[in-house]
Structures are given as C-alpha cells and as structure tokens.
Design goal:
With 631 residues, the protein is mainly alpha-helical. The chain has 27 helices and 13 strands. Among the domains are: 65 residues, no CATH class; 126 residues, no CATH class.
Length: 631
C-alpha cells in the first residue's frame, strides 16, 4: 500500500481503502495517505458515487466544512492532498471543547439562578407584596396610576426610556409602594429591590471587561452565550420571586420600547453610513486626522453621534492603515465624535432627545451646551494633534498608502447621504408627530409614531443595500460583525439593567438613597453633584434613563429647569452626554467603533485599558467644566 501513488478515496473498480474505528467515528485510510474523517451518515454509497464522478475533490459539510481531498482526479489535474489525521483530530477536539465550554457557561448561569431562589425572607416578602398589589389592581392604586407612553427613540432613542419612568419616579411611594398593577399596567417598584439584583448587570460588565483578556478565543466564539447566561441569571430568579407576569412585562417593555428601536436605529445608521466611501488621496497625517475629528465633532449634533461615527470611522482607519500607531486616533475619535460632539441638539444624543420630549426647547442645548462643549473639545483636539504629530515623527514620517494617488478626494455611494437625511427626518418626526394611536402588547403601549419610525428606518436600510454598489461596500471594509456583537451584548445589558434603573427611580426610598440624596442639600440643588452623579452613572448605566431619573429628581418641570434652574439642567445634560465617553458601554457608538477598528487590525485596549485612557485625558476636562460652570 505504501508503494502506491495516492489515488481517489473511493474509486470505481478499485479496491476500497480499509476502514478502522477511532472512537465512534469511522476513518478511511486512502492509499499512501493519512486517515481522513468520513461523514457519519447511513448512506455512504451516495458519497462513493459522488467521489467516483468527481474523484479529485469531495467536500463534506459536517460540523464546519471539512474537506476531503482525493488523488489525481481528471487527467492533467493537480493532485489534492487529503486532510491530515492531526487536523481532523484537532477540529474534533475543538468542537468537543466548544460544547463543553458552552455547557459550563449554562451550568454557571443555572447555579446563579438557583442561588437567587434561596434569597432571604425579605426578598420573598417583596414578591408576595407584588403579587398582592397585582391582585388588588385599580382598587387601591388608582390614584397613583402610571400612564405609560412609548418613548420616541432615535440616535436619540438609543436606550431611550418612556415617560412612564418619569411618572413612576414621581409617584414612587404612592399607595403601598410595592411592585404592582396600575390601571391594568404592571409596574416594578425599585424600593422592593436590594442591591443583589444588580449582580447580573455587574457580571455582564465584568465579562465584557475581562473576557477578551482572560480567554480571548473563548470570548470571541461564545460572547453571545455568555450574555444570554447573565440575562437568564436575572430573569429566572426574578420570574420565580416576583411572578412570570411582571418578568414578562418588564422584558417586553425593555424590548419593545428600548432595545428593538435602539437596534433598528443603530443598524440603519450602520448600514447607510457603511455605504459611503471616501475615495482619493486621503493620508493619515496629523493635520488630516485632526480635521476628520473636528468635522465629526461638528456634524455629530446634527446627524447623531452614531451616524457621524459610522460615516467617518472607516475613512479614518483607511487613511491611517500605513501608520504604526493608530490606537490613539480611534480613542480620541470615540471621545469627540461618538460622544462630546452630540451636545448641541436633541438629534445628537439620546438624553437630549428625552429632554426635548419632556418639553425642553429644541435649540436649548445649542444655546447652553455650546460653551461646555468647546471647553472639552478644543483642548482634546489640541492634545490629539500634539500626540499624533509626535508619534508621526517617531514613525519616521511613514510613506502614504499605495492607493493615495488614485485621484482627488471624492465620495462613492452619495445616495446614502440622502438616506441619512431620511433617518434624521424619521427620528424627528417621531418626536413631533403624535396621532394619539397606541397598540398594547401585554400591557406595553407601542405608539404609532414610534412604530412608523422603526418601519421607515428598516426600509431606508434595505434601500441602502439595494442602491449601494457591493464592491464599494467591500472596499469600505463593511461587515455585519460589529452590529451583531453590539446586538448580542446590549441585549443582555438592557435586560440586566432593569433592576438598576428601577432602584434609581425609587429615589430616596431605594437602595441607592445615599447617592440620590447627595444632589440636594437643604432643599437646594447641588449642581456639581448633579453633573458628576449623572455622568458617572451614565458611564456604566444607560445614559438616557439616567438623564430622565435626575431630570425628575430636579423637579421634572421643563419651564422651571429652563428658567431659574437652567444650570441644574445644564449639569444633568453635560454629565449624561460627556461622560458617556468614559467606558465602551457608556454610549452605543463607542462599542461599534471599537468593533470596526478591531476588524481593521487595530489592537484596541481592553475595557479597563480604555478607562485608563479616559481617566487620563477626559477627567481633567470634566474637572475644568466643573470649575467653570458648576462651582
């Protein structure tokens, strides 16, 4: 056998290669070659016949596209080497390990869930109180009913909470103060929750922070399963203690009013902006890079931080593809374009859009946030230019990329600019048009204008895919992985954040009472405390609901907050918008920019590594804002 030339694995009129068993799978040893993995199928004759017709190559899709190469095949064709025993064994072991790791993650989530079922009696009492309140319904809590209205989301609706949150905060403590039903609508009272309910939220944050560091290969392959595990670690015990009805309501409320609109908006901006390609001789010099960041900072307020980030991140990465040091460019891009730049209009960032829905005039942020934005943005641009110039010189002024001389600067996919305008118009429409038509899905009100907005955004994304040349997207480095990663991880974040936001809404009656009470002393608002508490919580929680919580803590009256207490509203707005840049999860575009940069070969810092950058460069700016505007 060893003396024969390698032939096809199965040949007509030839002696079939002997088989041997390895575990539970059958392996065949072709003449002169190593054993090759065969498909585990009862109909091997079909594969033999196929191999006889095309003996040069037989592809078998079995748990991940294993390729069995045969011998010489057709006359004159180059021989194809069979898959090695070692490669087949490695892939088999890899598949087994993947299943084992998934099983371990599921078991850990199950153990956490079982731990929650043994909570102290006080927690069980909270569940009983919730059940009693649900049973009593309108009889006892009619006056304290929270009339839910769906939020209008946009770039601004990323994470946007609905106005029921404001009513719930104002009415916390009415009636019995327990989770229950108001006018047939279920409601979770944060006063019933202890801090242990925040553990799954902390868990998903720590997984995002440590997973890529401790187990990068496992995290990359299974981050979706890990996110699902943490979501179940909250939902399962919550349903067991507070009841399935309340758990289903809170999940649907988050999904229909916050997560799905958020993902639709993000996906549409990602798709449309990904169809715009900057062509020509764009070189990543310090002047060009600083100009890109400055332009993005300006336009982010008018097309949303997500739209501006998705439009400019790829040109920035392509212009710097020949550079050795690129991480700083992406990090300052996140600081300026994905966060600080969205300060001037309700279209720029979700918290400001919520303020617009609550009655804050459209151009109030333009008038009052301009100076704080300048105080932060100008020094950051100067620092970036100095750093980039130093690193550019340290690299020895690297040569421009090979495509730099292809012609003058230009744009491909210009139709997507019009489609971006359509997205902005659709978002603005959802905030200004109110036909008073509401659809109810398991007690969750979905307003017509929000449904129309989401359908319009989906249609715009589809149009972008149809009208944009596929080759242009390919050259732009477009792929769906960033939006898939954001979708999976933020699904868990949106679910596990439910108890954290509920505790904050409870105000001084919740477990975070010491923190909430810091913002008011002797009946007067402490503006610096509003600024830092709103900002720090926005760094790790949802910046839009956090804005809404402190908006209502300050009184919730737009006339008062845009009049005598305008500095308090300024502190809340600046904290929510600026400090979303402190972490990858502070604002949705942060994570998307990171994912796109990593796909382009930029070795982005870890969760804590990025926080090191933000502490070093952003904190001095935030302290300066405090001294200038809030002391």
């Amino acid at each position: 056998m060893n003396g024969r030339a390698a032939g096809p694995l199965f040949g007509r009129g030839r002696r079939q290669a002997p088989r041997r068993r390895c575990g539970k799978r059958r392996f065949a040893t072709p003449a002169g070659g190593a054993p090759a993995l065969l498909p585990r199928t009862p109909d091997l004759g079909r594969w033999r016949r196929a191999a006889a017709v095309q003996p040069d190559r037989l592809r078998i899709h079995l748990h991940g596209a294993l390729e069995l190469g045969g011998g010489a095949g057709r006359k004159g064709a180059a021989p194809s080497a069979p898959i090695s025993w070692a490669r087949g064994a490695r892939r088999h072991r890899s598949g087994v390990l993947s299943v084992q790791k998934s099983a371990v993650a599921f078991v850990l989530a199950l153990l956490v869930s079982l731990f929650w079922t043994t909570l102290p009696a006080s927690a069980q009492h909270g569940g009983e109180a919730a059940a009693e309140a649900i049973a009593e319904g309108d009889a006892e809590n009619g006056e304290a009913a929270a009339v839910a209205t769906a939020p209008a989301g946009d770039d601004a609706a990323e994470h946007a909470d609905d106005e029921a949150a404001a009513v719930a905060l104002e009415g916390a403590g009415h009636g019995h103060g327990q989770s229950g039903a108001h006018h047939g609508t279920l409601h979770l009272d944060g006063a019933d929750l202890g801090l242990f309910w925040v553990i799954p939220f902390v868990g998903i944050l720590m997984s995002i922070a440590l997973g890529p560091l401790v187990a990068p290969h496992f995290w990359h392959a299974h981050f979706g399963k890990v996110a699902l595990g943490w979501a179940l670690a909250f939902l399962v015990p919550f349903a067991l203690i507070f009841g399935f009805d309340l758990a289903a309501y809170e999940t649907l409320h988050t999904a229909l009013l916050e997560y799905i609109p958020f993902l639709i908006l993000l996906g549409s901006l990602f798709t449309v902006a990904g169809g715009v390609r900057v062509t020509g001789s764009l070189q990543g010099s310090p002047v060009v890079n600083t100009a890109i960041l400055a332009i993005g900072t300006v336009i982010a307020s008018w097309m949303g931080t997500t739209g501006a980030a998705m439009l400019l991140i790829r040109p920035l990465l392509r212009a710097n593809a020949h550079r050795r040091y690129r991480v700083h460019s992406v990090i300052f891009f996140i600081f300026l374009v994905a966060n600080v730049g969205g300060s001037l209009t309700p279209l720029g960032d979700p918290p400001l859009f919520l303020g617009f829905l609550k009655g804050v005039p459209f151009f109030w942020p333009t008038e009052h946030m301009l100076l704080p934005m300048v105080v932060v943005a100008i020094p950051l641009l100067i620092v970036f230019f100095a750093m980039d110039a130093y690193l550019f010189g340290k690299e020895g002024r690297p040569p421009a990329p090979s495509d730099a001389g292809e012609g003058k600067l230009g744009l491909e996919g210009k139709v997507n600019i019009l489609l971006l305008g359509g997205i902005v118009a659709g978002v603005l429409m959802s905030g200004m048009w109110n036909p008073d038509v509401t659809f109810t899905v398991y007690h969750v009100p979905v307003e017509l204008q929000n449904l129309a907005r989401d359908l319009l955004l989906i249609a715009i994304a589809v149009l972008s895919m149809i009208l944009t040349n596929n080759e242009s997207r390919r050259l732009n480095g477009f792929s769906w992985f960033p939006i898939v990663e954001v979708g999976k991880l933020f699904a868990a974040i949106f679910v596990t954040i439910i108890p954290a936001i509920a505790i904050l809404r409870a105000g001084t009656e919740g477990a975070l009472e010491p923190i909430v009470s810091l913002v008011n002393q002797n009946g007067e608002p402490v503006q610096a405390a509003y600024y830092w508490l709103t900002g720090l919580l926005s760094s790790f929680l949802d910046n839009a609901p956090t804005y809404l919580v402190f908006f209502n803590t300050a009184g919730g009256d737009p006339e008062l907050l845009t009049g005598p207490l305008q500095n308090t509203l300024l502190a809340i707005s600046a904290g929510a918008v600026f400090m979303g840049a402190n972490t990858y999860i502070g604002n949705a575009p942060n994570f998307m920019v990171r994912a796109i940069a990593q796909e382009s070969g930029v070795r982005m810092p870890s969760f804590f590594g990025y926080m090191g950058w933000s502490m070093l460069f952003l904190m001095p700016m935030f302290v300066l804002v405090t001294l200038v505007f809030f002391i």
